[in-house]
Structures are given as structure tokens and as C-alpha cells.
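Q: I have 260 residues here and want to know how they pack in 3D. Can you give me a structure?
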Amino acid sequence: MLPSERVLDLFAVPADVQPLAGGQGASVRAGDLVLSPGRDPAVCAWLNPVLARLAVRLDERPARSFRDLRIAMPVPARDGEWVVDGWGASRWEPGTTSCTDVDVLVATGRLLHAELAGAVPSRPAGLARRDDRWASAEREAFEGSPAGPDLVRRLAGLRDDTPLGPDQLVHADLAGNVLLDAAGAPVVLDLAPAWRPARWAEAVTVLDAALWLGAPLARLHDWAAGPERQAMLRAALFRLLSDVDPPLDRYEAALAPVLG
């Protein structure tokens, strides 16, 4: 699926679009923008202004180093809307490469969540209105009694009330959404918002990196006890409940240290 002439016109980009690899494989480059489908107007209406202000602030910091953080700037259409016929736009970041290093991903998440905790001190009202499958899976992972395959029931039965840390705005899909720019600084894409502990978001990142990005499965041993285990249980439930036809054997092998 390609953006229509109306979408291209309102985002003021040329009709010469180039498909991009990564993500869901549906994003395209058009001029100096990346256009992505499936954007929720209600979410983007409150989230994109936050990200745009934070992206500017990060870019304006005087000192740059490898550990600096950047955010792909969301860009509104000419009519002021953030979403046009389901398409959203962000600034094209030339000279970047995909990041698959789990240590860099974890470090990026910690920097990002520290920034988000200051930028968004209270829960945005729009989060409570989400009803997509990821939001439903997140609620079930924390508060529900999910049914399903044996693995789901076992994970749910191991949850307890160990505190995971304060809730805040987090990126619930960081792995696969980090680029490295020419200076080696991480550039965060497509923030998937959730109001949960940062430890849980980090667990999702580590699990995704182990399952799909080649990170060592041994990294899951760091999540086999205490608050880390409880965060990983909820991360695994979130993924299993939101994935379409998840590979249960693969999850089972990765989660062996957590299951005990």
C-alpha cells in the first residue's frame, strides 16, 4: 500500500516514494519525510507534540557524544493534522543504520525513559481510550487472568505483587525502532506509548532482542528473579497476547530461565 496523492499533497512531499525496510515493511520515504500507515489520530494528537518538543530539545543540546539520544521528529501535515487517511510523517534521518545490539538498545531505553519521565509527569488521558490489541494485551499482562495456551497460563500464574517501580510514559516496542546516526547516536522511532514501569519496557526490549535480533538467550538469566522476573513475566504475556500466532516453542526456549 502506498500513500495517496492526497496524503502526499498534505504532507507537501513529491510523489516519488521509496519503500523502506524494517518495521512492518509498509513505511516509505517521500522527499525529506518518512510516511507510515496505520497511525491512530487520537494517539498522535497528544503524543506527537510531546515528541516534537523533546526531539527539538535533544537536538539543541550543545554537546554530542555516543551516548546522546535523538528522536525522529514527527511532522504535521499542511492542515495542522498529525494523521492523514491513517498516514503519519516523521523526519527522514539520512546516514543511519539499524541498531540490533541489545546493550545499546537497553542504554537507549534508559536514556529515553529518563527524558520521558520529566517531559510527561502525569498519565495522558488519551492512553485510557486505547482499545487496540496491544493495549488490551498490556492490560491483561498486568491486571487480567489471561486464558490461552499452557505457556500463557503458566506465566500468568507466576505473577505476584512485587513492585516494579513507578509508572511512567514508556516505549513498549523499542527493539527494532532504534537507528544509529553517522555519529553513533541512537535515534528512536515510532514510540509505542504505555503507562507502565520502565523496568517492564526494558524487559520487552530484552525479550524482543533475544527472540528476533540475535541477542544471546543467556541475557534472560538476568531476568530470572525478583522485580526483573516479574517484569519479564508481564513482558512475555504482553507479547504472547498481542502477537498473531506467536511461535510458542521459541518463546518457551527463551523464557526457560524465567519459568524456573
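Q: Anything worth noting?
A: The longest strand covers residues 87-91. The mean pLDDT is 94.
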